[in-house]
């Protein structure tokens, strides 16, 4: 997922390894879930939505993509 997020494509080697490790359906599912997460995160960031007043963050945000 890191290569796809950073370069907007994956090499043939990465795709072959992902298919070997995850299988085709799981690879497709993982890509769809990550894409949905990124879409929602972008919409919330654009709308400048944060944690509701009086509530703390559910977890400490960590950037996984360098």
Structural summary, described in words:
With 66 residues, the protein is mainly α. The protein is 61% helix and 0% strand. The chain has three helices and no strands. The chain is elongated and about 45 Å long. The two termini are 12 Å apart.
SSE blueprint:
Layout (H helix, E strand, L loop, with lengths): L1 H6 L4 H11 L1 H23 L20
Question: Would you kindly provide a brief summary of this structure?
Answer:
The chain is mainly α and 66 residues long.
| Biggest β-sheet description | none
Q: Please count the helical segments.
A: 3
- Proportion of helical residues: 55-70%
The number of distinct β-strands equals: 0
C-alpha end-to-end distance = 12 Å
From N to C, what is the helix and strand string? HHH
Regions with little confidence, pLDDT below 50 for 5+ residues:
none
Gross morphology is elongated
| Mean pLDDT over the residues | 85
Structure classification: mainly alpha
Rg of Cα set: 15 Å
In terms of DSSP E residues, the strand content is: under 5%
List keywords for this structure.
66 residues, 3 helices, 61% helix, elongated
